[in-house]
TrEMBL record, chains A, B, C, D, E, F, G, H, I, J:
InterPro entries attached to this UniProt entry: Cyanase, Cyanate_lyase_C, Cyanate_lyase_C_sf, CYNS_N, Lambda_DNA-bd_dom_sf
Superkingdom to which the source organism belongs: Bacteria
Pfam families associated with the record: Cyanate_lyase, CYNS_N
Lineage: Bacteria, Pseudomonadati, Pseudomonadota, Alphaproteobacteria, Hyphomicrobiales
Molecular-function GO term, any one: cyanate hydratase activity
Active site: 87, 90, 113
Reactions performed catalytically: cyanate + hydrogencarbonate + 3 H(+) = NH4(+) + 2 CO2
Root EC class: lyase
Segments forming domain Cyanate lyase C-terminal: 74-146
Key words, A-Z: Lyase
Protein's UniProt name: Cyanate hydratase
SMART domains, alphabetized: Cyanate_lyase
């Protein structure tokens, strides 16, 4: 059993039981973004959360072991094609240098970590059409000089 | 005079006058992110803001025309190499499908616009090391069915 | 059951029953282009249309669920190879900057949406040889300044 | 003098004289799309139109020769990056197989020519936001069997 | 049954029955090049030729339907690797601009069609070593100006 | 002085003197295709032909040396973009395996040489529209077994 | 049965019977390099050698037919990754222009054939560490001028 | 002064003085292949050889310093395009696995070094057409196990 | 049985028996890095170590043969995507020229071998957060001049 | 003045003054690796070190400002070509998964930072040939779960 198989079991259970990511996450006491990403195989659940999830969804016990394993993150397309994901790629390309300039200005010579990192997604109501809000937070890491 | 030349003039003025993006933006009453991106040639200033910026920085008047022109956004590397920008690319690759799942769950079949879009960058103090926060907001766009 | 499987079922039924996309679309009261693209897995049917289609073609009921799901749009070749599709790619490459110039001139700094979008294909009789006409319409989206 | 140099002269004249593509095209009695594309170096003007354009814009006479020469159409990026052009690329990728299916259904085994081809761009008013309309027409070409 | 399966059936039958492409083509009254390419899945046979071929080779009747369907022409390598095919690619790369110059000189601004097209391959005896002759003929298509 | 500079001199002289490739080739007693390709820097003229060409066109004597030098054939795009050249690439991709099959059938295990090679281009009149004919001939080379 | 399957049979037999390429080649009276390459599917055995090999190794008779068929040489990685093969690629990249200069100097405008070609590999004892020697020989092919 | 400039000086001197690589190499007492490759910037001359070469060709003294510097070997095309170099690339691709098999069989688990390496090129007369012979020798390097 | 199958057997045994790479390596008296890499199929075990490993883990005897075979090292992504591996790639890209400068300064014109090579990984305690230490050692190889 | 210009000034000064990286680094009290990388434009010097370096080498004062600026790290080749750098790339490709396994085993789910990072290079004498030793140390960063 590999992560891809557990992901398929979860997707199937979610569809047939009419679940949402919001509920799956709430039931194990973790965030929506982290829970979804770990169910999709891009993060590792803490062992107790994996056990709880497996129990909640009625998955085979082996799945908990797999969900707690460290994933190898492979993404096969340099440029993503799904429009929803491509737009994020485009934002990084258009605003990447801007973000770098402002991190350097506000913090110094360094970067925002993608490892010590968290994110949330919200719906912001607006009369001109609701907006998607992504809030990303990563630890500032300074370059070393030695 | 092209956008690249105006960018170089601004960078030089900023360095010699010891300015910050924060101050340049505040002086024309626009956000840091938008101001920086438009100074780097990736967005077009409204004409009056371009005039004001040119006056504030003592640039030649032609620069205002150029800053208000619609840019052609070319990014030459499918995978960005600077570590600060690469980390953003990696976040999109790792969390892209997660974001899509959650936008679909919260809004329906659609995407977050990268055009009707805004962003801000903040420094979040933390005892374990300050964090960079990126807040992105884009209009939700639903796929059409006809 | 995944979208690819439903597509294969539809293609097979269409061949053995001697159907056309035109008729399949008319029978559910949607356009040819949208119907074909959703049958090929590149769009999601509204649930009621999916039910109707499944009933009309005698597909298993689960297929309706799948046809109404949000697709992940993957296209595996940066440059398409089939001559019919390549010509469209070539048109975009040759006329892309022209289209951008004219959208900017007629609307301002923005783009034509590929999400809030529709298209139709017609046969235009002509004594020198009939012509294919593609009519694409997408909502104008203006860039944000903030 | 090469096509790129004539393009730069035209762009400069257009900016300083406050011209539009619409007017430049009308003054030589050709369409906006063709005129813009030929000014950008992606098509060849008929010789008399090139002469007229050069006279109207006050360009050096040699420019007319260059504008009437057959261009070598080079596009350097397999995947275009400017958002306005990328959306067109995405449309081709998402709807390419659909267009092929419907051309085959309406015409037979063949393609829409990108050579014996014309296009127009219009603004379609709409209460929910104006729409961009692209109308492309190309001669149907049937595959040969021998 | 897909085109790839019919191709495999034909190759197997050809090997076991000791047939040649020349004979297979002659028996249905079509050219060697077209017959071979359609057997390899890169062209569609007219329906009556497909029926005849299927009868001649003793293939299942469904194969005739498939052979008459419009193929989707996918070629997976931008640069072909087999030496025999690579040499053709190299000829196009080395002589491509030359061919364009001479088509423009002899015909005007346009191209040789790859759709309304035919080809033949012959063996030309020569004392210094026999030569392969490829004769390609495609309809001249003139660019449109509008 | 490099091959690219001589090519530019020839193109300029050809344009101002109203010459054709046909006449330039006839005046040195070589074929159109070879002459054009060598003028474009993709082949080396025999020394006496280079001298003659330089005399005919009134080029500096050093140009003859350069035209007789062995070129380094660089082509920078794996997939050519100009439509006229792309169609040739497409023909190779679509018919490559067919050509290989038929060379193998008519000659044995080997290839058509792209070095010991010649080509000609002709205009074939036809009531349905004139056709471009490319005739390529290359020596058959058999694979060695040892 | 395809070439890949015969290759697997040979590899297995070689391993279980403790054979070497040297012995397999000697037993059919051909060279090590050619024999190995044809067993790996990159060359075609003469029919009598294929029969002999099949008899020697106790393979099914159909394998002889397959070993004598003309291979389609596909190599899937533009840059080889195995260190042993990469070093050869690097040698070509570093010394390619040097080899071209010296072939041109010693022979004239032409190339070394990769078709009418043979190679051998030897172990050269040396006190500072034995050396691998590759000896490649290909027919000189002169470019045609016509 | 960089290596590229010294290369250009040498090429020019070689052409105007009617020199050959053979003679340039003999005059400094080094091999043709090494001398040519170092003149083309792909190897570093020992300092005394660089001095001698510079004196022989009448180059500026600074050139000797540059010729003795360690080169950075950049090759810009994953797949070489010049036919003479491409054939070598093809040989590596077709025979790479064969060479690896035979090195492993004759030496053990290791490779032929491309650093402790030498090569020579010879003309082998033959009644069927002279042959190019490349002799490459590299130290065998065994993989470490620890 | 191929190396990939043996790797899967080892991974499974390691997981179910709660083993570590550290222990697996210690039990056969080899280093952690080498043992792990050979278990993952990227190196060949000496035959006696392979036998011992197979006995320790209770694998089928055939696995020892496979573990001692010379691997073909294929890596399918030019740019690795897993963040842990990408960071190493980034280090090579950022510090590659620096390492080359310092090897040249300390040793002369040459490289660090990746074949006669060993490595170890250690955990270095630190109050500001423990550090990963990679120690790589490869034989210096000098370029040959001949 | 950009980083590339300062790098060229330093390289020139180093060559004419016969300096080494070792001495340049010692004179400002920083490590060889960091000093070299920052001189090559891949790191930013602390301001006081930049001042000292500029004084030591007699560079223009503006150079100190530039050396202290945050670099944009662009590396243009996905696969490095210089053999010395390629070997490092190969090591990452061959041992990348091994390193990840062992970091995970020794630390948990996380990575070695390439930002909070240092490295040194040493010459290790050995009777069988001296060895290059690279010692890399980066802070362990654990993935966040939230």
């Amino acid at each position: 059993m590999k992560k891809i198989h557990v992901t398929e079991l979860i997707i199937e259970k979610k569809r047939t039981a009419g679940l949402t990511w919001e509920k799956i996450a709430a039931d194990i006491g973790m965030s929506e973004v982290f829970t979804t990403s770990a169910c999709l195989g891009m993060n590792a659940f803490p062992r107790d959360k994996a056990d709880l999830l497996v129990r909640n969804l009625g998955l085979p016990q082996e799945a908990a072991l797999v969900l707690a394993e460290f994933p190898t993150k492979i993404f096969s397309q340099a440029v993503p094609t799904d429009p929803c994901v491509y737009r994020l790629y485009e934002i990084v390309a258009v605003y990447g240098d801007t973000i770098k300039e402002l991190i350097n200005e506000k913090f110094g010579n360094g970067i925002m970590s993608a490892i010590d990192f968290d994110m949330e997604i919200d719906r912001i109501p607006s009369p001109k059409g609701d907006r998607v809000e992504l809030k990303m937070r990563g630890k500032y890491l300074a370059y070393n000089a030695w």
